Description:
The protein contains ten helices and 17 strands. By secondary structure, the protein is α/β, with parallel strands linked by helices.
Amino acid sequence: xxxxxxxxxxxxxxxxxxxxxxxxxxxxxxxxxxxxxxxxxxxxxxxxxxxxxxxxxxxxxxxxxxxxxxxxxxxxxxxxxxxxxxxxxxxxxxxxxxxxxxxxxxxxxxxxxxxxxxxxxxxxxxxxxxxxxxxxxxxxxxxxxxxxxxxxxxxxxxxxxxxxxxxxxxxxxxxxxxxxxxxxxxxxxxxxxxxxxxxxxxxxxxxxxxxxxxxxxxxxxxxxxxxxxxxxxxxxxxxxxxxxxxxxxxxxxxxxxxxxxxxxxxxxxxxxxxxxxxxxxxx
Length: 283
């Protein structure tokens, strides 16, 4: 084989490989994909809309979120259309530094509630340098990304007014709560919100519940489950963590109502998909 034919063959092979990669990356377009990334003891979620837009909700500690995004987003996709910081604690926000470093973050959703830590100050600097559009969520708002709607259930406007005078002692109370709606189905994203707040704001059945606060007993109770009636519970939690998460009582009440429990400490990354007809598919 002469040099010209070898070059043609080489180009053809490259195009073939790229075609396979493109086909595999786009295989699940048309479905809503919710991935609970295995980020250790923290929360880090990726939502990929049916149109291929990307939403990152929290990002865990360390930099594992970047590895997760690279596993599920096509290599040529370097844009995150929306990133949400539910509340400013290390196990939810540290990984967002890696997202800022590796992707263009178009929109940032954050309450602006501060935390007096060096990490929070560095995160603020990274956000300013990124130049993302910043949106302060408030209960009653609806955010649309790639044809998927996110209803903001918390914080309430009254809490913002209180926090301007005095930030909450427990920043978990400021966690953004979102309700995703697609194809007649929904999912609750709850951060580390205390159960006393969660039970007041959840508003109806949803197939998917991201269990609050890594399965801590502070975040879930029977009232919440009676209102949500989830089919699937996602628990983002690290192996053998020092907090004893997820709490046995929480696991027991989830099991008692027949919820399918999916845990990152047991399964690694977890993916739950919804097709255009609302069919739920999970690993």
